[in-house]
Amino acid sequence: xxxxxxxxxFKAIYKTGTLxxxxxxxxxxxxxxxxxxxxxxxxxxxxxxxRTGRKMIPTERxxxxxxxxxxxxxxxxDVEKNFQKSTEKHTPTISVGMCFETFQTTLxxxxxxxxxxxxxxxxxxxEMLDQLDKGILDxxxxxxxxxxxxxxxxxxxxxxxxxxxxxxxxxxxxxKILKTKDGxxxxxxxxxxxxxxxxxxxxxxxxxxxxxxxxxPNFRPNFIVPNLNSIIRxxxxxxxxxxxxxxxxxxxIESGDVKLIWEGKKKLENTLYFGCRKKTNYQxxxxxxxxxxxxxxxx
Length: 299
What we know:
- It comes from Chryseobacterium rhizosphaerae.
- InterPro entries: LysR_HTH_N (IPR000847), LysR_subst-bd (IPR005119), WH-like_DNA-bd_sf (IPR036388), WH_DNA-bd_sf (IPR036390).
- This is DNA-binding transcriptional LysR family regulator.
- Residues 2-59 form the HTH lysR-type domain.
- GO terms for molecular function: DNA-binding transcription factor activity; transcription cis-regulatory region binding.
- It is a single chain.
- Helices cover 46% and strands 21% of the residues.
- By secondary structure, the protein is an alpha/beta fold.
- Strands 3, 4, 5, 6, 9, 10 and 11 form a seven-stranded mixed beta sheet that branches. A two-stranded antiparallel ribbon has the order 1-2.
- The radius of gyration is 26 Å and the shape is elongated.
- The chain starts with a helix and ends with a helix.
């Protein structure tokens, strides 16, 4: 079945004469416009435009199709606008991408009070950047910046990657080893401890170990659990080590349930960014989410 958004995109390309112009008019990415057009051309079975440089020149079949759909699409758009104006309460829906642990630690507690609908998506950062560019996501929280000209990144906080452990870890003996400044001794002491890791992401441990010892760890964690918040709950049992972002365990460190063992010879920090498209229909909703993150991360 044909997607009516394909016709809306087709009309915008026809009117503006470029993919970029259509993207600006519809507040979606240029790749999204190209996807709609290629899907419509595959559906109808013939080319609708000839590409001359950046200009999109309608073919004869494209002109015929435009004449057939332009008026109905305009009427549907008018109905949509009038319906929105006459509806007492129009509740927008925005889609936000971030890692699972960040959601649990920050936004989860505010979801029930949001004045708009929300869809939360979890995934790898490259995938979320691609979905943001294509218009599938409206906002992402990420430590990595993309290269798309359609996306703007705003730094709002930072996270320090630190070594933490359960309250039963013998930190006194570790402090004595640290005073020697002997990297091999420090590494051997750490390797003798029990370690926690997560199923899909060992990047924090790799980065921390490489920065401090010049190579990736030559051991595997003893316990693999679903996510970083699971690690924190396990560490509260008293033993074990893990490398995680400090903001995830700030409360547990302050309460004494988890110990801050070592920040490393050099601090390992990641900048956190808001990522969103430069043009969006949901600016106020996005600013609302940003405000909640600034409130939480500023604590």
